[in-house]
Design goal:
Layout: E1 3-7, H1 11-22, E2 26-31, E3 42-45, E4 48-51, H2 61-68, H3 74-77, E5 80-82, E6 85-90, E7 96-100, H4 103-114, H5 118-140, H6 147-150, H7 153-160, H8 171-178, H9 182-189, H10 208-216, E8 219-221, H11 226-238, E9 242-245, E10 249-255, E11 258-264, E12 267-270, E13 273-276, H12 280-287, H13 295-298, E14 305-313, E15 323-326, H14 331-339, E16 350-353, E17 368-376, H15 384-402, E18 411-417, H16 419-426, H17 443-446, E19 458-460, H18 471-484
Parallel strand pairs: 1-2, 1-13, 2-9, 6-15, 13-19
Antiparallel strand pairs: 3-4, 5-8, 6-7, 10-11, 11-12, 14-17, 14-18, 15-16, 16-17
Length: about 500
């Protein structure tokens, strides 16, 4: 049985390992940390449980597919529930709006609150759906770097309707052309942050992102987001996948232009297939020191990072739900500060995730576990202690004002994660949450492919390569890799076009 070696046990690595095991490989996963899951990790502190990484769960069918591969019932091994409220939004003037998962309710309530024509909002959502349907086969489900991808009916259909994709306008421009109310523009601009980009730079095609959330819905796993990675980890162990924890890979072994194994501090491990779930930048810089590097790709602008305060709150707030956004007054200034100045604005948009709303045991009775996040630049050597102090003060002042209650006295426990910590814990270059930013219309084509053009039997998965960051796209990257890797009995040396 040929061996497949997977570097990193993030969500993409776990999914790739499961798919390759199904294809008949003996699979070994190497992880620098003592746990599986990468960014999908959690801590318990002073009686409060916090998910440390991604907090939004949508398109759960991509997780369910991995259980179904092994003819297992995902509802038993990975239960979750759908949220009736997608997100609560708060503005500086004290106004607030809740997006309901029911489409009809959202359209009627949004038309009334924002004083927009209901038909205009509906047409916008239908246009977002069309963008997704036109591009999913091309951009999300196949390698953009294989000729066969472009020789398909789906590609021709997308090309013919290129004008409907809004590739030449920014997301903000598209939203301003559609809506009169600046609050509704800001609400839909926010979705650029789902791939770590600026709505004033990312192309209008990114308006397909709210379709994924508003059409498929938002969900919460029983046990929190950490349960996504842990359920897949347990499945992987049951299928005989071997994990090597606290065993970082130091080098990918390349012989005769083919990946043939990996080196760790414990020795060399031979393999027929090597898949890196590590960020593409350190993969080349650290693991492939003698390989020709795709310098243009490695020089791409990094996505935004995050500054996150995990607060145990000795109170409960009925106006809050699982997902809550407190907008800044000047959105463009906020993103200019992040991407151009590589700093944090004086008035950041604040996201609060509270899993104890749905999982009461995540906090002591009557209390709440707050995951409080602001968008931040990557780690470029800034004074993060000063930035954390500044941000904490701004966050507390804004929340205290809008929630009409002093927040700092309610903080029972605190844990902080900044871009430096994100980079150290997950090997994400500069702490970028999504690899490269999507601040250009060609960003999707510039991401690193899921295979090496120079080294046979070497593949890549995860948020820093095609098709991008976030749980659904990382899971799709694993499927793309598995589709390119031959079944174990048909393994050959060269699979590039």
């Amino acid at each position: 049985m040929p061996k497949a070696l997977v570097i990193g046990s993030g969500i993409g690595g776990l999914a790739t390992a499961l798919r390759l095991r199904k294809k008949g490989y003996e699979v070994h996963v190497f992880e620098q940390n003592s746990y599986a899951g990468g960014k999908l990790h959690a801590i318990v502190q002073d009686g409060y449980r916090f998910d440390l990484g991604p907090s939004l769960f949508t398109m759960p069918h991509f997780v369910e597919e991995l259980f179904q591969l092994y003819d297992l019932d995902p509802s038993v091994r990975f239960p979750y529930s759908k949220k009736l409220t997608v997100c609560n939004y708060f503005w500086q003037d004290g106004s607030q709006f809740s997006v309901k998962s029911d489409r009809s309710a959202f359209l009627a309530e949004a038309a009334h609150f924002f004083e927009e024509d209901e038909k205009t909002i509906h047409q916008y959502l239908l246009g977002n759906q069309k963008k997704y349907e036109l591009t999913a086969e091309l951009f999300l489900k196949k390698s953009l770097h294989k000729l066969s991808t472009y020789l398909s009916r789906a590609t021709l259909r997308a090309i013919v309707q290129m004008g409907d994709l809004d590739l030449f306008d920014s997301l903000n421009t598209v939203n301003q052309k559609t809506f009169k109310n600046p609050k509704l523009v800001q609400l839909f601009n926010r979705y650029a942050t789902y791939n770590g980009s600026s709505p004033f730079q990312t192309p209008g095609i990114m308006s397909l992102i709210p379709h994924l959330e508003m059409h498929y819905g938002t969900f919460i796993p029983r046990g929190g987001m950490h349960q996504i990675s842990q359920s897949l980890f347990e499945l992987a162990k049951q299928q005989g996948i071997e994990f090597h924890f606290e065993e970082a890979v130091h080098q990918i072994i390349v012989k005769n232009n083919s990946a043939s194994g990996v080196k760790t501090h414990k020795g060399d491990y031979p393999g027929s297939i090597v898949v890196s779930n590590m960020d593409i930048y350190p993969t080349y810089k650290k693991l492939l020191p003698e390989a020709e590097r795709p310098e243009k790709t490695l020089r791409q602008e990094r996505s935004s990072s995050a500054l996150i305060f995990y607060w145990g709150i000795r109170d409960s707030f009925p106006e809050l739900d699982l997902h809550n956004i407190f907008f800044s007054a000047d959105y463009q200034k906020e993103f200019n500060t992040i991407f151009e100045e590589q700093q944090i604005t004086d008035d950041p948009t604040i996201y609060i995730n509270i899993t104890s709303k749905d999982i009461p045991q995540d906090a002591p009775k009557g209390y709440e576990n707050w995951f409080v996040m602001i968008n931040a630049p990557g780690n470029y050597g800034q004074d993060w202690n000063a930035l954390k102090t500044k941000a904490r003060t701004a966050i507390l002042q804004k929340l205290s004002r809008l929630l009409k209650k002093p927040i700092e006295p309610l903080i029972a426990t605190e844990y902080v994660l900044d871009p430096v910590g994100i980079e150290a814990n997950t090997s994400s270059y500069r702490g970028a949450l999504y690899g490269a930013a999507s601040n250009s219309r060609f960003a999707a084509f510039l991401r690193h492919p899921n295979f090496s053009r120079k080294i046979n039997n070497l593949y890549f998965c995860g948020g820093s390569v095609h098709p991008g960051g976030g749980i659904p796209l990382c899971l799709l990257s694993a499927k793309i890799v598995a589709d390119m890797v031959p079944d174990s009995e048909n393994l050959t040396q060269n699979h590039a076009d």
